[in-house]
Design brief:
Layout: H1 29-42, H2 46-63, E1 71-74, H3 79-90, E2 95-101, H4 107-120, E3 123-128, H5 131-144, H6 151-167, E4 172-175, H7 179-182, H8 197-208, H9 220-229, E5 233-236, H10 245-256, H11 269-283, H12 288-297, H13 303-309, H14 318-332, H15 336-344, H16 357-374
Parallel strand pairs: 1-2, 1-4, 2-3, 4-5
Helix pairs in contact: 3-10, 5-8, 11-14
Length: 375
């Protein structure tokens, strides 16, 4: 780290985040930018939010006339996606729930999804990736020493949702992403572009000799095709609701027997091991900071509560961490020595290998210029 360690006085982002700067009061640019860009959503008047929700529901129903389903909702077993499914059904929509199974689902997540599907009476499509192929791709990412191993899951999840929408003639994918719980920008050194299929294929070939077979992959070109040619769009459904993560969780627990997780995205065994152990140990990254900071700024958590939550390891207990470590080693076929060797090796940037970064940046800048001209 090239600068003195410092933590924001308003949120809990710190100097592990690339590009962080502090004003004279010790307030960081991450929470300042979040407030500037998201206040119109976070603090929107309830009547305005309700009107926009009604308008979107009307459009979805109209688009889905004569079809078995009118929208896609990706479900992971987490609070956000679960709440989208509940509220969509309450609004009279006919969603197809879609789940991407990469072999790391916790039993708790599977039970949460099953209870929701049964309780709401909706259909579920599950795409199961061949474990040997997925494990080989994961091993390639480990061997490459890149940070965003979850690029594999995130890319496949988006691909499956787009493909199911296209196959069923739907234009709407309702997402659990939202400003209230995950609206703060992720530091650029903490993850990678989720549509970088070239990076996935390159690492798979170089380190594992893998040619994608059952892995559903979507590239920059694939994203452009589905969004602009087919007109399939993701919508942050929760941004149109008065969404409070903690009250939503209580309703899910009461009505669907939902069992919560200790931290965000811990419905996957690998995700919690990755975020709770690999990221802090190898890359010096604690993703709890951006998640908790978002809750602080959206008024769902005090800074004091967040600081308290950051004390200790990002696991409910040392015993839970050790259990997940044993599970990880067994499932990946690693020894403890291999894990320690991996943790000691230096990080390599994703674009050290073939990637779509130049193409993605060009398309993004082109779109921004085009959008500004239309305004």
């Amino acid at each position: 780290m090239n600068q003195t360690e410092q933590t924001c006085t308003r949120c809990v982002m710190d100097t592990s985040a690339q590009g962080i700067v502090f004003d004279e009061n010790g307030v960081c640019n991450y929470c300042t930018d979040f407030i500037k860009k998201s206040s119109h959503i976070l603090f929107k008047k309830p009547e305005t939010r309700g009107q926009e929700l009604d308008e979107l529901v009307f459009k979805i129903k109209k688009s889905g006339r004569g079809k078995k389903y009118d929208c896609i909702i990706g479900v992971s077993g987490g609070v956000d996606s679960s709440w989208v499914l509940v509220r969509a059904v309450e609004a009279g929509l006919r969603p197809l729930a879609v789940h991407m199974d990469n072999g790391w689902n916790s039993e708790l997540a599977q039970n949460n999804i099953a209870n929701l599907i049964r309780g709401l009476g909706v259909d579920l499509y599950t795409h199961v990736i061949n474990w040997n192929e997925y494990r080989s791709l994961m091993q390639a990412f480990f061997d490459a020493d890149v940070i965003d191993i979850e690029l594999l899951y995130d890319n496949a999840m988006m691909a499956v949702n787009y493909y199911q929408a296209a196959a069923n003639g739907m234009k709407y994918i309702l997402s659990g992403s939202n400003k209230a719980t995950e609206g703060m920008a992720m530091p650029t050194n903490w993850n990678w572009n989720k549509f970088d299929a070239k990076n996935i294929r390159a690492l798979g070939r170089k380190f594992a000799g893998v040619k994608l077979s059952t892995f559903p992959c979507i590239s920059t070109a694939g994203y452009i095709w589905h969004e602009f040619a087919l007109g399939i769009h993701w919508h942050s459904f929760l941004d149109l609701l008065e969404f409070n993560k903690f009250s939503a969780m209580e309703t899910l627990k009461r009505d669907f027997g939902y069992k919560p997780y200790p931290y965000k995205h811990y419905e996957s065994i690998f995700t919690r091991f990755y975020q709770g152990f690999i990221l802090p140990e190898k890359f010096g990254v604690d993703k709890r900071r951006v998640h908790l900071s978002t809750l602080i700024i959206s008024g769902q958590l005090t800074r004091e509560q967040a600081v308290e939550s950051l004390k200790g390891i990002p696991y409910p207990s040392v015993e839970d961490l050790e259990a997940d470590k044993r599970y990880f080693l067994k499932k990946m076929g690693w020894t403890e020595a291999q894990l320690q060797d991996y943790l000691k090796r230096p990080e390599m940037p994703h674009d050290h290998y073939p990637s779509e970064k130049i193409l993605w940046d060009f398309c993004l800048n082109f779109y921004k210029r085009w959008f500004q001209q239309k305004m």
